[in-house]
């Protein structure tokens, strides 16, 4: 480790890190400023001689030389500003001192001669000092930045030394990292109430909570476990994408609801080189397995009881979230509105269709149904459902002059429906074409290629 004396020498070392670039100077004035002053005065005097009154702008107020002094002082500082003042005064009065007017007293005449150079001098001094203060502040900040970088390098070096000296201890502590707190932080990533999204999100959660190189998530299907997603697999791997209900993993995990670990010699034959750990996902309400987490590869030091307990707790939390999502989905299927609360739900569409059918039978009131199906078969992402439904609702309301009922699609969330009371079938076809045209030009919905169909109740 670096000594305290080495740490205290950081500030002196920082000077070596600052770029040492000294500008060229003439009589203590920066060369660039010297040239700019001479060029400006030369051009100004030539302009006065050939196009002006020839009195070196004495009749102009403010005097053009003031511009030079202000710019030089602001850009370069006090010394250059005073140098510009001296040269400007020399150019103004050299062989050009105005005569004393008859009505002027000696004091008034002297004040007239001194006033402008004095104002130039004060301006150059004040503006130049402000510039110098600004440069000093920049240098101070650069010094602090350099010191901070030096400290950062020292800390980084010390960290690497500490890391190297405690390598054996770190190897032991790797297995201690996956605590209940980290599992809880990982599970907070589940914000959606969609069962499908929970299963997809599970890969990200496992990746953050478990130090596994290769793992996968399966869901229970008709013929066994079917893969949802995986992490770390490469082309050489031949892990099963579907684990049939005849496989030993399925029988033990789904049938006996056991955790299989290669740590247990008996479990190794059940895993059949398909992984080192398999954990069931059990619905806490029905106590039935609905999925599985399978670890295919991880460091031996990480495969311990702490890891198994952590992934067991993780599967329990996932199962609870999955059960809540199913409950929410069932409630939503009976709701008046869709999940985004923008359109009416599909279940309400079926109820209202029956009501309008009765009105048709008893009162003879015609009602047209306009349906828009997504021809690409793409499901609108969950996070964009509200945006899609809002856009569709806005388009429909502009197309119809009379009140209509707008519904979200069926359970696939790929379709939209409209109930239009008192609208004939021909009129419905015209409105549908108008809506479809607007859908093709909507910035978001145009990607889904909706096709309309109309029929009458």
Automatic annotation (TrEMBL):
<feature type="transmembrane region" description="Helical">
    <location>
        <begin position="106"/>
        <end position="127"/>
    </location>
</feature>
<keyword id="KW-0175">Coiled coil</keyword>
<keyword id="KW-0472">Membrane</keyword>
<dbReference type="Pfam" id="PF13492">
    <property type="entry name" value="GAF_3"/>
</dbReference>
<keyword id="KW-1133">Transmembrane helix</keyword>
<feature type="coiled-coil region">
    <location>
        <begin position="131"/>
        <end position="158"/>
    </location>
</feature>
<feature type="transmembrane region" description="Helical">
    <location>
        <begin position="67"/>
        <end position="94"/>
    </location>
</feature>
<dbReference type="InterPro" id="IPR029016">
    <property type="entry name" value="GAF-like_dom_sf"/>
</dbReference>
<feature type="domain" description="GAF">
    <location>
        <begin position="196"/>
        <end position="321"/>
    </location>
</feature>
<protein>
    <submittedName>
        <fullName>Membrane protein</fullName>
    </submittedName>
</protein>
<feature type="transmembrane region" description="Helical">
    <location>
        <begin position="27"/>
        <end position="47"/>
    </location>
</feature>
<keyword id="KW-0812">Transmembrane</keyword>
<dbReference type="InterPro" id="IPR003018">
    <property type="entry name" value="GAF"/>
</dbReference>
């Amino acid at each position: 480790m670096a000594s305290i004396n080495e740490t205290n020498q950081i500030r002196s070392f920082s000077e070596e890190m600052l770029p040492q670039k000294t500008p060229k100077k003439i009589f203590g004035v920066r060369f660039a400023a010297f040239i700019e002053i001479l060029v400006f005065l030369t051009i100004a005097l030539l302009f006065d001689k050939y196009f002006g009154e020839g009195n070196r702008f004495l009749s102009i107020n403010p005097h053009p030389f003031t511009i030079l002094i202000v710019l030089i002082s602001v850009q370069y500082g006090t010394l250059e500003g005073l140098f510009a003042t001296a040269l400007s005064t020399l150019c103004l009065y050299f062989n050009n001192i105005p005569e004393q007017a008859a009505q002027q007293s000696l004091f008034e005449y002297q004040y007239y001669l001194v006033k402008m150079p004095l104002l130039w001098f004060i301006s150059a001094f004040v503006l130049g000092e402000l510039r110098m203060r600004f440069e000093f502040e920049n240098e101070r900040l650069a010094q602090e930045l350099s010191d901070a970088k030096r400290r950062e390098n020292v800390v980084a070096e010390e960290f690497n030394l500490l890391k190297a000296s405690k390598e054996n201890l770190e190897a032991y502590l790797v297995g201690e990292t996956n605590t209940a707190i980290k599992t809880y932080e990982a599970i907070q990533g589940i914000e959606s109430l969609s069962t499908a999204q929970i299963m997809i999100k599970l890969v990200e959660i496992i990746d953050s909570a478990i130090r596994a190189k290769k793992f996968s998530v399966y869901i229970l299907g008709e013929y066994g476990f079917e893969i949802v997603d995986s992490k770390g697999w490469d082309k050489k791997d031949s892990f099963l994408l579907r684990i049939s209900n005849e496989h030993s993993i399925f029988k033990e995990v789904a049938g006996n609801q056991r955790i299989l670990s290669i740590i247990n010699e008996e479990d190794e034959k059940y895993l059949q080189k398909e992984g080192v750990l398999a954990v069931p996902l059990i619905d806490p309400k029905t106590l039935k397995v609905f999925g599985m987490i399978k670890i295919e590869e991880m460091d031996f030091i990480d495969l311990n009881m702490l890891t198994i307990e952590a992934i067991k707790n993780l599967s329990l939390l996932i199962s609870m979230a999955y059960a809540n999502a199913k409950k929410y989905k069932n409630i939503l299927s009976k709701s008046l509105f869709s999940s985004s609360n923008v359109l009416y739900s599909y279940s309400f569409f079926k109820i209202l269709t029956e009501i309008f059918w009765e009105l048709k039978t008893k009162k003879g009131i015609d009602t047209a149904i306009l349906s828009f199906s997504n021809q690409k078969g793409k499901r609108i992402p969950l996070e964009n459902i509200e945006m899609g439904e809002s856009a569709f609702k806005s388009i429909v309301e502009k197309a119809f002059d009379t009140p209509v009922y707008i519904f979200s699609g069926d359970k696939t969330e790929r379709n939209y429906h409209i109930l239009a009371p008192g609208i004939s079938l021909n009129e419905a076809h015209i409105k549908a074409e108008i809506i479809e045209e607007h859908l093709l030009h909507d910035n978001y919905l145009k990607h889904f290629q909706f096709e309309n169909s109309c029929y009458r109740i």
